[in-house]
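To fix ideas, we reproduce below one chain and its tokenised fold.
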Amino acid sequence: MSTRTLKGAPRYFALLGIVFWALFTMFPLYWVIVTSFKTSLSVVGQATFIPFVDFEPSLQAWSELLSGERGEFFNNVIASTIIGLSSAVLATAIGAMAAYALVRFPFKVKLASGLAFFVVALGGYLLGYYVFGFSRAAAMMMAFAAALVVSLITNRLKVPGPIMGNEDIIFWFVSQRMFPPIVTAFALFLMYTEVGRMGFKLVDTYVGMVLAYIAFSLPIVVWLMRDFFAALPLEVEEAAMVDNVPSWRIFTGIVLPMSVPGLIATFMITLAFVWNEFLFALFLTNAKWQTLPILVAGQNSQRGDEWWSISAAALVAIIPMMIMAALLSRLMRSGLLLGAIK
């Protein structure tokens, strides 16, 4: 074996490894596609892989799905699209503003103000509900408003205790994702139910789902956009400040255009989280605004999981995200790399 062949061997092994890994990762998708064109007999029988060779393809699963026999297919698609896009856009916009403020402006939050908020919120709720006889929703909203005012006043007073800065605030944002989702979903369901008794329906509504997903997505948006904004050159903003350009115009006219790749990447990641989220949709919807993950999970019967129908529904949930990721892949890659470079 020549020296040239030996030097090129690692390259060939690397290529074989990449091909093997590509086949390994793409096979589940291929299996879902093939299964969606099988009949029940083809699925429960021996494993078949190649259409027209191992089995005769059938459109039975797709026909049942598109005709509505397997659930409100078109309603689920429309609900997922509207809720996903709205939540991702709003969460990215709000989170970008919060992240920019945490990067460019120093904040000081006294620990005492946080403790005051907790004590007043909990005590006010218990006092309003058990002593004054308010409804749960009314007691909760009044206690929250009072706690917010008390915490703001406490933060301006000279009180002893540690002071938290921007890094602590960012950690607090990220720590919100540490809660088990079942706890948050159940708490939101109880809160939405109580608010609904006051005449403001939030369960199984567009507004209720979007608010839940914005709160669910904000921590990851703030975390990602913070790195993007920190990587931008500060000199451009300082030059605008010298010319007395308002802060809001610096943000909208200078910072956001330079952050487009980062915004696209963050939007796509947020949309993927919302599009695939199951637990909130399960708790907070029951008919009108159910999303695609609920449709996929519902593809079973008394006979067990009907994998041909599950595969067809899963493909419907996968394809839109694949198309959008392919269209925006270049901006996503540049945005992710921008956030990685400081």
Summary: The radius of gyration is 26 Å. The mean pLDDT is 84. DSSP finds 16 helices and four strands in the chain.
